[in-house]
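Box S2. Input/output pair 1.
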Amino acid sequence: MFRKRKTQVENGSKALGLASIGIGLAELAAPWFIERMLGLGDRQARRGILQVLGMRELTHGIGILTAKDGDGQLASGLWARVAGDVLDTALLGIAATKTSRPARFAAVATAVAGIGAADFYYALKASAR
């Protein structure tokens, strides 16, 4: 009868879920593009790592988009993204020593840090509910 208005946490979380799906698809479909964007040489092992990360991103996104708010699923999905951000940051730290385009790499790393901050913020907010 009446539609419940989505909260800021739900809306922000869903946006992060959609971002996960977009990032995941890019890592799966075009790992060479991600390598080039980061200023890294094209290597099969690196492409494989990016594709595994892409699968992780896809599953996070699907989990967040299908989560029910109020029973802990949404908070769990967001905390899983935060854990993935920690892994991504560690891998970016390693890649930073191999980039041939430090300015472009820094821009990508800054974007990743911003998304990580949003993940953390919404995970905290969803956990408090």
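Box S3. Input/output pair 2.
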Amino acid sequence: MKADSKDLDRDIDNARQRIAAAQLAMAEKLEGVEKQIRDTVAGAESAVDDVVSSVKGTISETVHSVKRTFDLPHQTREHPWLVVGGSVLVGYLLGGRTGTTRIAKVNRVNHSDDSCRQQLQQGLAGGVLNQFKGEIGSLRSAAVGAIVTALWEMAKQSLSASNGQTRPHETQQRGQTNKPG
């Protein structure tokens, strides 16, 4: 019986050693998993921080770009012809609403004494205008379309230039020096 009891004690000690070794191995594996989780969380936090700072930068650039787009003095300095064309277009569109021009109103006042002459002028002008009414309307539409297209192209160029691309006239101006003429 003593032999059985020694074998049993040896088996229990072996079992305890295996349990201790298994516990040690599990603790090491848990530490490894814990480290991987910490690294993953740190990487995710870093990625989120990068995305947030990138979005903040993009929003800041967009706000600056929008402010510059609607800054009339800046746009006038940068794109004088675009501003002139836009002004002409707005003036044309607003002037066409009344149907009569300021010159026609002044002419009526100045020549009110000579009603025959005024009627003759109105008759001739009205006849010519009525005769070419369709062509004048077509020319007006074509002019408005050309102006709008030109303004659109200039706006696209200025927006692409404000996104970091240099405009051709800027590179030429940078290369030139002020030489006495």
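Caption for Box S3: The radius of gyration is 42 Å. The CA atoms of residues 64 and 70 lie 10 Å apart.
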